[in-house]
Amino acid sequence: MSKPFPTYHCDMTIEEIGVEGNRYIASEWRALYDSMYVQLTDAFPEIEDAAYGLFLDQLMPVVFERMEEAGFEVSETLEEDDFVIGKNLIFRNSLEKWGAEDNRSRVFWNVVRNKQGQPIGTLLTDIPHSHLKFDIPSAPVFYTIRESVKEQIVQGIRQLKE
Fold it and tell me: What top-level branch of life does the organism fall under (predicted)?
């Protein structure tokens, strides 16, 4: 059975990119979660939040790879101490301030640029997770905003979550 990979094309808006990413995530995340659950539950007491990184390393790369194949730029120059999961989710480009310990929300952001290098908006990746045990209570979700400057992105995330 073939996977329902995300399909992007170079003239999509940031909103269309988010919709297509959410379609893919909705169809894939649960089966992947179930297949990794025992392994990551066993590992969680030792590696804690890194277990979510292992999950996202399996779920997210195809989203970013397909966007790049369509001509979008979603990565940025890495700094020496950057920690990256899921191919392009950089911890310095994230906020985690919402939810109880058993259902926290970390939101990563990636500015998306077209073939000409112009920003078309920002893809926000909201990862629900528990700090008490390995648990992803609901599907990761993409949100989109038109902003592309860090201060405006952070403000947009706060408006979304608060």
Answer: Bacteria
DSSP single-letter state for residue 74? -
Alpha-carbon distance values, 120 to 73, 80, 92, 113, 117 (Å):
10, 27, 21, 6, 9
- Model confidence pLDDT, tens digit, residues 54-106: 999 999 999 999 999 999 999 999 999 999 999 999 999 999 989 999 999 99
Asked if residue 115 lies in contact with residue 71, where contact means CB atoms within 8 angstroms, the answer is: yes
Pairwise CA distance, residues 46 & 38, whole Å: 14
Helix then strand then coil, % of the chain, to nearest 5: 40, 20, 35
Contact 91, 83 (CB under 8 A): yes
Helix (H, G, I), strand (E, B) or coil at 79: coil
